[in-house]
Amino acid sequence: MGLIQMACAKDPNENLAKAQWRIREAAGRGAQIVCLQELFRSEYFCRQQNAEMFALSEPVPGQTTAVLGTLARELKVVLIAPVFERRAPGLYHNSAAIIDADGSLLGLYRKMHIPDDPLYYEKFFFAPGDLGFTCFDSRYARLGVLICWDQWYPEAARAAALGGASILFYPTAIGWHPAEKPQHGAAQLEAWRMIQRAHAIANGIYVAAVNRVGREGPPEASLEFWGSSFVADPFGVLLAEAFTDKEETLVVECDPRRVEQVRQSWPFLRDRRIDAYSPLLERWRH
Questions:
Q1: Residue 97: which CATH number?
Q2: The pLDDT value given to residue 220
C-alpha cells in the first residue's frame, strides 16, 4: 500500500497536481492501494469558522474523482481520495471517495464523528456521516475507511473489522497547537499512535494512518501537523513510519495471510460476548 504525506498549499489545483505525481511515485514503487490525507486539496480550513471556505467544496462525482479516476485506471491502482463533499446547497460532508483500479467510483465514506475544538471547528462545516461503517471490495483487498477523529473510537474500528475489512485506512489532519507542543506534544503524538495500533491488535487488522505535515495559519492561530503516517500490522507492529516534519511517500508491503495468522493465535473475535454489549448503544450507563 502507499501512503501520501504532503504539505498543502492554498491553491487546490496545486495540491491535486502534487497528489497525482505522488500517486505515480507510489505506484512506481509497487503500491496497489494508495491513500491520500484528509482534505488533501486544501489547507486545513477548519481552523476558523469562515463561510467563504464552503467554496472549496465539490460534488461527488466531481473534479477530484474524475481526475483521480483517470489516474487510477492508467496505473491500475485503488485510490482513497478524501474530499470536501458538497452534497446539496448548504449540506456538506468530510468524505472519502474510494476509486477502484479500473477508475470507477467504488463508494463513498462520510466522516461519522465530527470534532469541535479550538482550531478544529468541523461542526461549522460538516454534517455527520450517514452511510455507516461500510467496507469496500476493491480489486486488491476489502477495505475499511474512517477519517481522523473517527480514529479515537474503538466502536468504529470494530465495525469495519466485522464488515470483513483486512485493511483500515485513516486519512487524517492532526497536529499540535504550537503553544502546547513543548509540554504535551510528545504525549499527544504517542496517544494518537497508540490508539490506532490498539485497533490493529484488538481486531487483527492492518491499520494505515495518513497525516499531513507543515504549519498552517497565522502565528496566533496556527496548527503544526505532525506527519508520522504509519502502517501497523494485525498485531500492532509498526511496519513503517514517516517523518514528523517532511513530505514522504510511504510504500509498505502487507501480506493478507497475516490477518488470519494473528486471529488464530489471538482469537478476540471468537470470544466476543455479543449477548452482553447492549450498553454500548446507550450514551451513558450508571
A1: 3.60.110.10
A2: 82
